[in-house]
Amino acid sequence: MSGFDKVVNSYEEAMAGLDNDMTVIAGGFGLCGIPEGCIAQIKKMGVNGLTIVSNNCGVDGFGLGILLEDKQVKKMVSSYVGENALFMKQLLEGELEVELTPQGTLAEKMRAGGAGIPAFYTATGYGTLVGEGKDVREFDGRNYILEESITGEFAIVKGWKADRYGNVIYRHTAQNFNPMAATAGKITVVEVEEIVEPGELDPTQIHTPGIYVDRVIQGTFEKRIEQRTVREA
Fold this sequence. Notes:
Blueprint: H1 11-14, E1 23-26, H2 36-45, E2 50-53, E3 73-78, H3 85-92, E4 97-100, H4 103-114, E5 119-122, E6 136-139, E7 142-148, E8 152-163, E9 168-169, H5 178-183, E10 185-196, E11 215-218
Parallel strand pairs: 1-2, 1-8, 2-3, 3-4, 8-10, 10-11
Antiparallel strand pairs: 5-7, 6-7, 8-9
């Protein structure tokens, strides 16, 4: 295989270089499309002082929530944090800094960071606590606030299929934050359900081109349901 081969054979290789006080951007929405193996490796490595950028912080005992158990996370940049009792405890006790960000704004912060755009204006959050202290400009009679983009030393992403060159396809709802997160890391690690040979993926179906991806690993995944809701009989 050529030098373009990005497949690694262990999570130790996949997360090599991660250190204390770094920023990690994590794809996923709730428990859907989360990079479980990369998260488990971060816990195993014991690095701390991390800033984690993700839609949410998993749940107690699963997903990003396991990084709270040993207080590895210094700061969370998230849009939703309501499913994690340990998260709430650490926040209320001043052990965890939290920057709540509107969901669409968070997605655009990742996308803009990956595109090399340092900041952008959005109407979301104007006139609320989110907009306090931020630059305001008026466009076509509507007020917008300036939001800075986000990048990180690492981005960890969950895909469905990838080829050995790092081209990735996501499945269904895993297209949530994963494509944006994949562009915003200096080192982007993608774990997938299946790795195929170059040429086997339809180029028109690629969601994340391999140019954004540094490492690919095949993982195994536990497909949990965050809130199981059924209809009454």
